[in-house]
Amino acid sequence: MATNSFKKAHDTASPTAFNIEINNCPHNSQEVFVIFDGVKDEINNELLAIKEGNGYATGVAIGIYNNDSERHIPINNKTNVYSITDKLASLKFIAKYVATENIVLPGRVEANAHFTLVYN
């Protein structure tokens, strides 16, 4: 992560797309949404906290976004609803570094997120 990508708090950098591919969805399910959970950042509790300590970056957290890269999904909140077709669904998201402070210091960035699938 290049810290010069951040000029002020709330700036984002390094968008990384990721997918959750679901197959064999429950027979009667027509829709699914996701809830991402993990340790919330202390400054912005809608973001995923990174590990702290020697060698780790500071002033930054991880934001999870819908595939359009515009709508942020707060930790422990529902995503958009996705349609299930033939027991299959492809859920597309983007993760970004988000500055939580005006000064971001370089270092390693590690975070863990878990997700729950909720079928309708």
TrEMBL record:
Its main location: other. Residues 2-119 form the Fimbrial-type adhesion domain. Transmembrane segments: none annotated. Gene3D superfamilies: Fimbrial-type adhesion domain. It is found in: Fimbrium. Keywords: Fimbrium, Signal. GO terms for cellular component: pilus. InterPro entries: Adhesion_dom_fimbrial (IPR000259), Adhesion_dom_fimbrial_sf (IPR036937), Adhesion_dom_sf (IPR008966), Bact_Fimbrial_Adh_Pro (IPR050263). One of its GO terms (biological process) is cell adhesion involved in single-species biofilm formation. Signal peptide: none annotated. Belongs to the fimbrial protein family. This is Fimbrial subunit. It comes from Arsenophonus nasoniae.
